Every structure is written in structure tokens, then in C-alpha cells.
Amino acid sequence: MSGALSHIRVLDLSRILAGPWASQILADLGAEVIKVERPGAGDDTRGWGPPFLKDGQGNDTPVASYYLCANRNKQSITVDMTQPQGQKLLHALAAECDVVIENFKKDGLVRYGLDYATLKAINPRLVYCSITGFGQDGPYAARAGYDFLIQGLGGLMSITGRPDGEDGAGPMKVGVALTDILTGLYAANAVQAALAWRERSGEGQYIDLALLDVQVACLANQAMNYLTSGNSPRRLGNAHPNIVPYQDFPTDDGYMILTVGNDGQFARFCEVAGHPELATDPRFATNKARVGNRDTLIPLLNKITIQRTTAAWIAALEAVSVPCGPINTLAEVFEDPQVLARGLRVDMQHPTVGVIPQVASPFRLSATPVDYRLPPPLLGEHTDAVLRDVLGLSAEAIAQLRADKVL
């Protein structure tokens, strides 16, 4: 293995999305990830369908597409952590690992002896990442946290959706579990930071990562818009709070995205649109003026953009370096020439189904590229191999554990 993290072994006790997304990032970078699942059931997302992965005859398999998005390059083992023998196995694995990732509720693993204090005593160099909804302290610490809930409580939904007064107005969640994804990204970064510190100090550490903290942090400019003004941003649909015009516009055959980032781009847009006078109008000549007069400008632009097709606008505006684009369906995304050129779909060989699709990692590392080594594993597919190769257990010992329903 030649990945940048090929020297790192991760014990992944997480499930659903935020934790598995973090461990998949580490796995894509070369880490050996051992995914621990419940015997007979596994990660809940294995059953979160339809759609399900289909076999060679087009029939549904028991593997949900959801599970496939966050679990490649991992080994799956089944261990019943409620049993003392299962806890002993996981203690032994923690002693051989560099990282533990878990997303149980606060103190949820204490009863099993899989909390940080217990595992640190076994392996002081361990980096232990806990992902929860609300963190390890504060009045909400004991609550369960889910992406949808956090998008609402953390403010994202208050700035997402059509403005009041428009058809379809109201708060709206993002179309993917974005808070989970962002939390996974932060977790992978935090783990690598802790590993870098361990190289210098020789010490592991505990990472307390909360979905709410991540959601608030990722409000970015909208958070600062509030903190500097005292005014809560309102929903603007597809419009931008700080830049105009920066939203969707109707065309003769659909919609296009126009993302004007400066006054020069606006002047070039107006020239192509056949209305150069708009760029010199004091109400619209600067971005500050356009933001202040958006309610006047946007209806004017809507009347202009609807006169040409989306493709015609894109061709004309790209020729003068005005950023714009279509609103693609996912079918159109994966047929887009740039997406094809970048290889954003990859195919992997699955042990029972044959070739399955995956979305490529966005990492492009020149010396240590992502290696698509393992497809999302079958439940418990690697139990025997991990217990044999990592812990040195014999075939007889593994068979006895299975007979005792530990595996």
C-alpha cells in the first residue's frame, strides 16, 4: 500500500454517515480501516433503500445504495460488543490501531469499556474521535442528533428556501445530509491533525466533534453577516446575500445559473445581453448598489434572460468570461464532459454482484493518489482475516467465537 496514510490503522465503530464518511476519507488516503458491525444486522444504512444494488439479472440485492456511498476501502468485521468476549476482542484491536472513530451518544460506549478513558489505558497513543449531535458538554449533550434536526436548529434551514411571499416559500433542508458530510470532513481533518501532533509529542488525544458545532461553523459568511450587523439573514431562494446578480434566471427553454462576481463581469454580461446602459446606471454600477437595488434589477434581468435558450446564453457568456452554467439533473451530471474527463465515476468489482459504480474521491495527489482497493464490504466479510492477521487468532479460536455468537 502506497497511500499517504498507509501506515495508519483505524478502528471504525461508527455507522450511518458522518463517521463512515470520515473513515472513508482516511481509507481513500490509504489507511487500513476496520469497520465493526453488529452480527446479523450491520450498519443501519445497509437497509436504507430503495434503491438497492442490483445483481446481474437486475434483481435487488440486500445492499442499499446509501450504504455504498460511504464504505469503500474498508474491511467489515462483525463483533457483538455487548458480550465480554466481544469487548475483549475490540480492546485487543484498539491496542493495534492508531485511531478509533465512533458516533454513539455521549457516554454510550462506557458500559462496553470502549470509551476513550478505557482505551487510552490500553493504548496511550490512540487518537479517539467521538462524533455526536451536540458534543460532550452543554445542556443538549445527552440528546441524539440527526442531520435534518441540526440543519434546522443550527440555522441552515432559516437561510435555505424560497423567500416569504413567493410560491413555495418556507424553510428547506439541503438535498443531501450536508451536516453529516461536513462533520465527516472535519473529523478526517481533526484525526490527521491529531496524528501529526502524535508524531511530535508521542501522545494520542481525544477529539470531541459535534454536528451542531460544525453546522454553525459552516454558516460562514452568513454567520458573519449576522454577527456584524445584528440582523438575521433571510431566505433568498437561489440568490446570494452579498452578491448580485448571483442566482438562477429563466431562459427560453429552462433556467441558467449566473454568478457575476465583480463589476467587470456585470458590464460584460450587460453588453452581451444588449443592455450596456444597465452597467452604467448608478443603481447597478457597483455590487453594493446592485445588492441594495436587487428588487429592481432582478425583474429587469428576468425579462432579458428569457429571450434566449440556456445553451445560447452559456455560449455567449463563456466567450466573454462571465461565469454561468446549467442546472443539471444527476443523469446530466454524469454525462457532462468535464465530469467524464475528471473520472468522477469509478467502477469497482464487487464480490457477489460484479461491477458496481462509485463516485470518485476529489483528492488528486501526485505522489500518493487514491487507490480504490476494496468495494464496500459485505457484512462481516473480513472478520476471519482481521482476527487472524491483526490479532493472531487461530481458525479454531475464531470458530469458537462464532459458535458463541460473539461474531
Structure description:
Helices cover 37% and strands 16% of the residues. With 407 residues, the chain is an alpha/beta fold.
Architecture blueprint of SSEs:
Elements: E1 9-12, H1 18-28, E2 32-37, E3 52-54, E4 60-64, H2 65-68, E5 74-78, H3 84-95, E6 99-102, H4 116-122, E7 127-132, H5 147-153, H6 178-201, E8 205-210, H7 211-217, H8 220-229, E9 246-251, E10 254-259, H9 263-273, H10 277-280, H11 287-292, H12 294-305, H13 310-318, E11 324-325, H14 330-333, H15 337-341, E12 345-350, E13 354-359, H16 383-389, H17 395-403
Parallel strand pairs: 1-2, 1-6, 2-5, 6-7, 7-8
Antiparallel strand pairs: 3-4, 9-10, 10-11, 12-13
How is the CATH topology of the largest domain named?
A: Rossmann fold
Shape: elongated
Question: What is the CATH homology-level superfamily of the largest domain?
Answer: Crotonobetainyl-coa:carnitine coa-transferase, domain 1
Give the strand content: 15-25%
Identify the CATH architecture of the largest domain: 3-Layer(aba) Sandwich
Strand order of the largest sheet: 5-2-1-6-7-8
- Strand tally is 13
CATH structural class of the largest domain: Alpha Beta
Largest sheet composition: 6 strands, parallel
* Helix share bin: 25-40%
- Whole-Å distance between the termini? 28 Å
Number of domains: 2
Uncertain segments are none
Number of helices: 17
Gyration radius, to the nearest Å? 25 Å
- What structural category characterises the helix and strand content? alpha/beta
| Average pLDDT for all residues | 97
> What is the element string, with H for helices and E for strands?
EHEEEHEHEHEHHEHHEEHHHHHEHHEEHH
